[in-house]
Amino acid sequence: MTSLATGTASAERPTRDLRAGRSGGHPRWRRLRGGSGALLFALPAIVIFGLFAWYPITRATVMSFQRTNFVQDATWVGWGNFSYVLGDPLFGTAMLNTFYFTGLAILIGFPLPILLAVLISEVRRRKGIYTVLAYLPGVVPPVVAILLWRNLYRPDESGVLNALLNVVGIPPLSWLSSVQLAMPSIVAESIWASVGTNVIIYVAALTQVPRELYEAAELDGASILKRAWHVTIPQLRSVMLVILLLQIIGGMQVFAEPFIFTGGGPQNATVSILLLIYKYAFVNGDYGAAAAASVILAVILAVIAGIYALITRKLGNA
Amino acid sequence: MNKSVYRLAAGIAAASVLAGGLAACTTNAPEEAGPVTLTVGDLPPADSDAARALFEQQVKDFEAAYPDINLEPSETVYDPTTFQAMLAGGTLPDVINVSNTEGATIGSTGQVADLTEVLASSGLGDKLNPVVLDTARGADGQIYGVPTDGFAMGLVYNRAIFEQAGLDPDNPPTTWEEVREAAQTIKEKTGVDGFAHYGANNQGGWQLTTEIYSYGGRVTDDAGTKSELLDTSAAADMLQLLSDMRFKDGTIGENTVYSFDDAGKDFAAGKFAMMVIFSQAAWGALVQANGFPGDDLGIGALPQEGDTANGTLQGGAITVVNAKTTDAEKAAALKWIEWRYLKKYTDETAAIADAQATADSGAAVGIPTLPILNEAAQADYNDWIAPYVNVPVANFAGYVASASVLPVIPEPVKNGQAIFARLDTVVQAVLGDPNADIPALLKAADGDINQLLTR
User: In Å, how far are A275, A310, B114 from B423, measured between CA atoms?
Assistant: First the structure.
């Protein structure tokens, strides 16, 4: 009873303070003044965001309905750009390639860092060395990494991979020149480049998993696999879901790898949506088509994000 | 109280900085009534002292000769990825030099000034070599730039490998059949690939277009309204030859997505012996960029189908003028272009100054080019610069001799890059698959090119 009374008394105090504060001026004016001050402080961010994010987004959306050369006045073409892009056989190819890239990249690139992070966290000595080793590829600038990998993939025996195959008597493979191998080759580099960052995130997340859970599972006689399944994965779930979404979006926006490795070849086997958009804009000078393709990609990504949100909400409720 | 003063002051400061920034963004230079001011691009960067000094001297002399024209030099050079943004933002120089592959594209989109009238009224148009002037013509027949360099595609070869293989480096192959035989000999005697073909970055389609010309074919009609890929057997014949060289003879390597950059590195490293490129690019990419010994570089005529001189594809550079310039500015721009790029063909002092500065900057002097003005002016110019020539001109004899024999044909006038991109995939398919169905590939490409030409 006493404690309850104390609680009530302390709860009243802030209310009184608040009233005292308000008594300094008209309550509505006070609120407004606080708002405009906050607005002033937010203004730089709003203006910068507006100029460099919202304005280009709006402009690109408008441009997707126009034909423009930036010199003469733009002409409205209705859905013309969209029908051109959707009718371009290359767009379908690029779409399938992009899904193929994303699918392959996630199939291997999603579980791999979890596995590596679990292994690293199981190591008892010099854990830092392994973390650094895993992260090193992330330190190499992407373009440099791709140029290095191109030397691995050279189609004759001067390529590192073919030289290795040669040692075991396998004839050289034309990694980037083969319609079948080009995409998996690109995916391999992309996984190598991105795995380190995700390992770091998972290693950090693993340190948050209470050791008692493992100890309790061990006492119950759970094997390593069972401990991973019943303790590690549920504890990492939220981090895993975020990384999955980032990997999907990153995969759908792949550009540098096909641009530098193959230019989209051979026979368009590695043309991605973003590479196609780049070609529309900077090779063909067709900004309307490029903007329309960008809008289509944005819609697809929004749909994927929506589905993702639905699924994660369901999982969260489960 | 203090807090709110601080808050207000900070807010005002932030707002005024932003307002200032916005005002700076939207302020336009006032219209000038009297003298004309032009921004001129391509000022050589500070690390090439001699070339930069020459440019600055030319600006000074030009302004003295034309007191009504003020020049503002800028280091901006043409880059397709920034061109559009600079154009839209109004920061593009009024005069800029463009590789003519791009010139045709931006000309046909109306993004640079139409110079047809001002070229006629100034008299400059009559001085220019009409064949080279065609490279600056858009699909509508109008002229969108002034050609300042003209090249034709030729056969570039490694003279040292030719000697090793027992071939005569002074007599490079001049027909495709001879190319095939030379490639076989080279492969047999030295083990390196005889020939390489680009397959990426639209360069595969660019090279195939060149080769189609050499077989007497065309990719589109002159007006750029329809595909002519199937009108002759040129494309099919050339692709069959490539397939045979790749799969029957083994004289073309396995890389089907060769870019010019990669091919240049591999050529310089002696990994193959022959490639198709134009003279200036050969020297720049092979010798200057990749350290290939200049004395081993041979440039011959573009091989032809049989003994007929069918033709070769033109390359080079054109100088374009910003579409937003006034007529007075256009006229002034032409005067500057003539002063900077063409005076050397009619004025010995200008020729020598240019050759000396080019040589001092470490660039090549004496690379054979197509005559920009006319044969006589070109011959005079060649005499004037003779003491400064720093390339083994004798190694280019085949190429020079072909210049007066081989017709030079411009690139497709409309959507050239998109067409080249489409043809890249044809080259990749033929070089990647021994059973590629060439007629079917060409039929599909023909349909797609017609589709592209309607856009």
Answer: 17, 44, 30
Q: How far is A141 from chain B (nearest CA, A)?
A: 20
- Is residue B205 within 8 A of residue B423, CB to CB? The reply is yes
Per-residue pLDDT, B292: 94
Contacts of B259 in chain A (CB under 8 A): 263
Contact predicate B294/B165, CB 8 Å: no
Q: Is the peptide bond before A266 cis (omega within 30 degrees of 0)?
A: yes
Q: Report the residue from A44, A268, A283 with minimal CB separation from B425.
A: A268
**Considering only alpha carbons, which residue of chain B is nearest residue A281?**
B81
Q: What is the amino acid identity at position A13?
A: R
What are the chain A neighbours of B416 within 8 Å (beta carbons)? none
Residue B98 DSSP code: E
Cα distance between residue A6 and residue B387, in whole Å:
103
Chain centre to alpha carbon of residue A160: 30
Contact yes or no for B258/B198 (Cβ under 8 A): yes
CA distance A18 to chain B (A): 18
Average pLDDT in the B4-22 region? 38
ipTM over 0.95: no
Going by C-beta distance under 8 Å and a sequence separation of 6 or more, which residues neighbour residue A15?
none
Rounded CA-CA distance A134/A157 in Å is: 29
Q: Residues of B with CB below 8 A from A262's CB?
A: 200, 257
Q: Which among B444, B425, B439 is positioned nearest to B240, based on CA atoms? A: B439
Contact by Cβ (8 Å): B428, B204: yes
Residue A301, class by beta-carbon neighbours within 10 Å (0-12 exposed, 13-18 middle, 19+ buried)? middle
B38 has pLDDT over 80: yes
**Stated pTM of the model:** 0.79
Within 10 angstroms of residue B369's Cβ, the number of other Cβ atoms is 20
Q: Which residues contact B288 (CB under 8 A, 6 or more apart)?
A: B362, B363, B364
Q: Do residues B299 and B391 make contact, with C-beta atoms less than 8 angstroms apart? A: no
Q: Which residue is associated with the tokens 């001067």?
A: A158
* B positions 248-287 inside 8 Å of A (CB): 253-257, 259, 271
Does residue B325 belong to the interface with chain A, where contact is any CB pair within 8 Å? Answer: no
Place of tokens 């022959």: B274
* Chain A nearest CA to B235, separation (Å): 18
pLDDT tens profile B356-379:
988 888 888 988 888 888 888 888
Residue A231's pLDDT band (boundaries 50, 70, 90)?
confident
Which of B110, B428, B432 is nearest residue A72 as measured by Cβ atoms? B110
- Residues 6 or more apart whose Cβ sits within 8 Å of residue A71: B87, B110, B111, B323, B324
Contacts of B429 (CB under 8 A, 6+ apart): A266, A267, B436, B441
> CA B352 → CA B283, B343, B359, B384, distances in Å?
21, 11, 10, 7
Enumerate the residues of chain A whose CB falls inside 8 A of the CB of residue B418. 283-284
- Ramachandran category for residue B344: left, alpha or beta (phi over 0 → left; psi -120 to 50 → alpha): alpha
Distances (CA, A) of B150 to A26, B183, B283: 79, 29, 15
Where do runs of H (alpha helix) occur along chain A?
Answer: 2-22, 27-49, 55-63, 80-87, 89-109, 111-122, 127-139, 142-152, 160-167, 182-207, 211-219, 224-227, 233-252, 256-261, 273-278, 287-317
> From the CA atom positions of chain A, what is the Rg in Å?
27
- Least CB–CB distance from A156: residue in B110, B254, B418: B254
State CA B145 to chain mean position distance. Answer: 13
Cross-chain residue pair B432–A71, CB shorter than 8 Å: no
Rounded CA-CA distance B158/B188 in Å is 16
